[in-house]
């Protein structure tokens, strides 16, 4: 059991001062405003503003090695597909040890940014050439990396079987992604168990990467295991055009016809949508994970987040390619990008954006977290309020100051399951994470 005195906390509903939080077995067992009363002597004082832990719904940890390396593509026609070629080259070089080291450093960077749970959209399954490892070596590398970094992991194991609607075999580094068929995918996913810091979940890489029968098998596995189901959706116009040519339906309509959409499904990106697509996603309460820093980095486009939210889709956030690890930036970019395309301000409230980073993200990842409430997981973070980015009088506009001003450098304390992971802005287990990243990235460049 651990006790914490939160000097000022946003519970997910409102701001409260001097809140006593008591944790038992990783869960909030007691939460009480103390007013002017004394706190228990054993309670650890958490200063600044305490928030529920942030939930990063969509990450590809190994993409962290591409930061700064693909921003100036050769030639004048750089786009998503030229970036993907660079990503494939990186994917062809990783093996379990280097994958673990890179993911551990990437997850530690997330911990420093206040992220207490991450959804890792994982498709780098097998050896170079596609031969399976003797066991789930790459999956175990990710699980161990998250454990050492101190963050919860929802392992969104992605089924990826073909290069596109035309079929044919995967080639080059992409051969590492394929389990050959969806039943083999399911057997591999079933080969490693959950534990308190790990949730297994299912991912359909995209409608272009699986045929309809395989999509049904993956969705069926998710239903059978009561697991989250995630899918890349309409990130690129080319996918929409190819899907319509092959099936007569948009990717969203195809997924709806296969009974994939629903409240336990999260669509990633969902950028190039028709009005009917927006309606289908909203009517089925399908969550949408917006990843604005990656979407702008790759030139993908702007998700119609306001229309989706109005239609009934919960919004959550992801760092995706990890070109930046900052959920505050992801949150404000949802609003600021909408301003650019709608010419209106205040499309999303600051509170709704903070919920996208906390409670909605936790729901999409399958964790009973994202709020400071009895029965929820004891995951929370604190921000220093006297930094230049956040300084200001009073509490009336505090949540707006956080959404439009906060950065990872403002995070001081991170607690996961009642256990401190970051204190004073330093990772307690891994120390200087910047130095760790430098070493890992340097090792990857060594022939």
| Strand line-up across the major sheet | 3-2-1-4-13-14-15-16
How would you describe the shape?
globular
Class of the domain at 2-52 and 372-433 in CATH?
Mainly Beta
How many separate helices?
15
Output mean pLDDT: 95
Number of strand segments: 16
Reported for the largest beta sheet, the result is:
8 strands, mixed
Q: Please state the structural category.
A: alpha/beta
Write down the CATH topology of the domain at 2-52 and 372-433: Urease, subunit C, domain 1
Portion in strands: 15-25%
Q: What oligomeric state best describes the polypeptide chains here? A: single chain
Distance between the amino and carboxyl termini: 49 Å
Low-pLDDT runs of 5+ residues are none
What are the SSEs and their pairings?
Blueprint: E1 2-10, E2 15-24, E3 27-33, E4 44-52, E5 54-59, H1 80-91, H2 96-112, E6 115-122, H3 137-149, E7 152-159, H4 182-189, E8 198-204, H5 212-224, E9 229-233, H6 237-247, H7 251-257, E10 265-269, H8 275-283, E11 287-290, H9 292-297, H10 305-311, E12 315-317, H11 327-342, H12 350-357, H13 359-365, E13 380-383, H14 398-405, E14 411-416, E15 419-423, E16 426-427, H15 433-445
Parallel strand pairs: 1-4, 5-6, 6-7, 7-8, 8-9, 9-10, 10-11, 11-12
Antiparallel strand pairs: 1-2, 2-3, 4-13, 13-14, 14-15, 15-16
List keywords for this structure.
single chain, 447 residues, alpha/beta, Urease, subunit C, domain 1, 8-stranded mixed beta sheet, 8-stranded parallel beta sheet
């Amino acid at each position: 059991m651990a006790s914490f005195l939160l000097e000022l906390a946003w519970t997910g509903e409102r701001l409260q001062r001097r809140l006593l939080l008591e944790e038992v077995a990783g869960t909030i067992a007691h939460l009480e405003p103390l007013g002017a009363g004394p706190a228990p002597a054993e309670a650890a004082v958490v200063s600044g503003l305490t928030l529920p832990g942030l939930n990063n719904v969509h990450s590809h940890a190994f993409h962290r090695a591409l930061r700064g390396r693909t921003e100036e593509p050769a030639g004048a026609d750089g786009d998503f597909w030229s970036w993907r070629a660079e990503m494939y080259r990186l994917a062809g070089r990783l093996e379990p040890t280097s994958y673990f080291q890179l993911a551990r450093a990437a997850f530690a960077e997330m911990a420093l940014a206040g992220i207490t749970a991450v959804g890792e959209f994982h498709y780098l399954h097998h050896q170079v050439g596609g031969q399976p490892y003797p066991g789930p070596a790459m999956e175990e590398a990710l699980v161990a990396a998250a454990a050492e970094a101190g963050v919860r992991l929802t392992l969104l194991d992605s089924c990826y079987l073909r290069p596109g609607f035309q079929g044919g075999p995967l080639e080059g580094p992409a051969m590492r992604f394929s389990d050959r068929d969806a039943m083999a995918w399911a057997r591999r996913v079933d080969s490693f168990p959950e534990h308190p810091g790990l949730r297994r979940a299912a991912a359909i890489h995209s409608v272009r990467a699986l045929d309809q029968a395989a999509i049904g098998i993956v969705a069926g596995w998710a239903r059978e295991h009561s697991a989250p189901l995630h899918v890349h959706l309409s990130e690129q116009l080319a996918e929409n055009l190819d899907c319509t040519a092959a099936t007569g339906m948009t990717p969203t309509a195809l997924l709806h016809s296969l009974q994939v959409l629903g409240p336990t499904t999260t669509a990633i990106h969902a950028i190039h949508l028709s009005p009917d697509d927006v309606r289908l996603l909203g009517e089925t309460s399908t969550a949408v994970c917006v990843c604005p820093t990656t979407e702008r980095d790759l030139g993908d486009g702007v998700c119609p987040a306001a229309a989706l939210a109005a239609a009934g889709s919960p919004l959550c956030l992801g760092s995706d390619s990890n070109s930046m690890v900052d959920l505050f930036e992801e949150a404000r970019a949802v609003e600021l990008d909408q301003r650019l395309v709608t010419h209106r301000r205040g499309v999303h409230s600051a509170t709704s954006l903070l919920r996208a980073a906390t409670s909605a993200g936790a729901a999409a990842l399958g964790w009973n977290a994202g709020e400071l409430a009895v029965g929820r997981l004891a995951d929370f973070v604190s921000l220093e309020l006297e930094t230049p980015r956040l300084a200001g009088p009073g509490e009336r506009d505090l949540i707006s100051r956080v959404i439009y001003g906060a950065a990872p450098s403002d995070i001081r304390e991170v607690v996961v399951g009642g256990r401190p992971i970051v204190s004073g802005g330093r990772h307690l287990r891994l120390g200087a994470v910047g130095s760790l990243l430098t070493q890992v990235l340097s090792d990857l460049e060594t022939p």
